[in-house]
Amino acid sequence: SVNARAFSGMTQLQTLDLGNNRVSVLASGVFAELVALNTLVLRDNLIGINSNVPGANLLSTNVNLDIVDMSNNNIEALPTTIFSTLSRLTRLDLAGNPWQDLSPALFATGLTSLTTLYLNTNARGRLQTIANGTFQNLPAIARIRVAGAQWDCCGLEWLADVAAVEDLVGVQCRRPALALGLSLTSAIASSSVSGSVERCARALPDAAAAPQATEITSSTVQIAWVTVHGNAYAVTSYQIQYAACANESCDFTALGRKAKCASGEVPTNANANQAMQDCHFLAQDTTAVGSTMAYTVGSLDPYTTYCFRVLTSNALGSSEGVPLCGVTSAESTPSAVHMTLVATTTNITASLTPPLAGLVAPTLEHSLPFSLVVNWAALTPSAVSVAFATTPTIGGPVARGPPSPLLLATTLDSAPGPMQAPVVNVVDENTVLVTFTPPTEPNGDIVKYEVQITDTDGDVQSRNITSTYDWLQGENTGLDSVKTD
């Protein structure tokens, strides 16, 4: 091991070569005073053996480093911030280490000048895959070597699109079986890897956690969920199932409607919301785990409670995610109610039925079936009335719906009101002129008048008048004419 005081006071030292010295432990702060150090060689040692991983601050003060060689050690993993202060570093050699996991965060910050990176494996190498996007924060990178014979080529096609990656012929595939012994270049060319997610699946994908409802309107709910491990490299799609029900006992099989997603790449931005229409999002483990996806489910009913869940699928089947229940779509402006009118001689009764859309909140007043009867009483017979209704929502901001169509109702006819006394004028010895006016309350259409005459003997005779001016000729009536005004 190298103790913490080994290089005390060496502030002007520019090159330090500790290669091939069987070093297994580097004490905390061992390089802290080497502020002028330009080249650090630690190759061919035992660093990392027995979990003796270098600390995160091992190189934090060595900001002038240009070259770091840690090749051929026993490093299985490194703290993700170990290189974060080395903005002048141009060459980093990590080859020949038995990596268990190469975190993309290892190269995420600080290495703005890095041009050369060695990750190639040897016989001890256990690194099987590299996550898509691992090298995206290396703006100056020009040369990356990843050659070796242990690679799981499921999900490594993206390496062919990185210009800095050298010698893809030297990347030998171990998986899938169809690509065993082929170089990544040959496997891609022969379609042994590309499009072969069926060959890469090992088990059903992990089930998704309960999604979140991030935006809610009266007809849509946006659902967001976190992508999962595919067991392995083979999550082929995510699918939203939803049904109108209130709790987790919801029968998605019977009630569920499926909202499918569109082909495309996994969102790289945690806030990405991509429109998904045919539900085939490639979501490989190395590129998608922990990303956030979102999808807006449309054509929902207003003010309705739903359950949602996410299904993850690969070639072996689907895993049902934890449901999210109790999501209620927002209220909307209701449609017009349906109204009918029934009239009597002095009353009109209006009966209302629920609107076709925009149900009101289930307040106490509306816990019973929605119906309403309105009576207008003490009306005039045979009179025309106009009626309409509006439909405000209840339980939120009032949104007044449109009125129902205007309805005309006429009260039924009734007996006419009393007549005023007629005026009688003698015309001659055989004729009198009877003059009268219509009643002030006809209570319907007047179809006839009846004039009655009583003689001195008490006999009553009558004549019907069916027009406003009617000459009646009668026998032995003593009445030749009647006139109405």
Overall description:
This protein has 4 helices and 28 strands. It has helices at about 185-190, 195-200, 250-255, 285-290, and strands at about 15, 40, 65-70, 90-95, 115-120, 145, 150, 165, 170-175, 210-215, 220-225, 235-245, 255-260, 290-295, 305-315, 315-320, 325-330, 340-345, 350-355, 370-375, 385, 405-410, 425-430, 430-435, 450-455, 460-465, 470, 480-485. A hairpin with a 4-residue loop joins strand 10 (about 210-215) and strand 11. It starts with 14 loop residues before the first strand and ends with a strand. The strands form 9 sheets. Strands 1-2-3-4-5-6-8 form a 7-stranded parallel beta sheet, with no helix packed on it. With about 475 residues, it is mostly beta strands.
Give the fraction of residues assigned to helices: under 10%
**What is the radius of gyration computed over CA atoms, rounded to a whole number of angstroms?**
46 Å
Give the overall shape: rod-shaped
Overall residue-averaged pLDDT value: 75
Amino-to-carboxy terminus distance: 132 Å
Number of helices: 4
Proportion of residues in extended strands = 25-35%
**What structural category do the secondary elements indicate?**
mainly beta
Low-confidence stretches: 258-288, 357-370, 468-485
Summarize the structure.
The protein is mainly β and 485 residues long. It has helices at 184-189, 197-200, 252-255, 285-288; strands at residues 15-17, 39-41, 67-69, 91-93, 116-118, 143-145, 148-152, 165-166, 171-175, 212-216, 221-226, 237-243, 257-260, 292-297, 305-314, 317-320, 324-328, 338-343, 348-353, 372-376, 384-387, 407-410, 423-428, 431-435, 449-454, 460-465, 469-470, 482-483. The longest helix is centred in the middle third of the chain and has 6 residues, at 184-189.
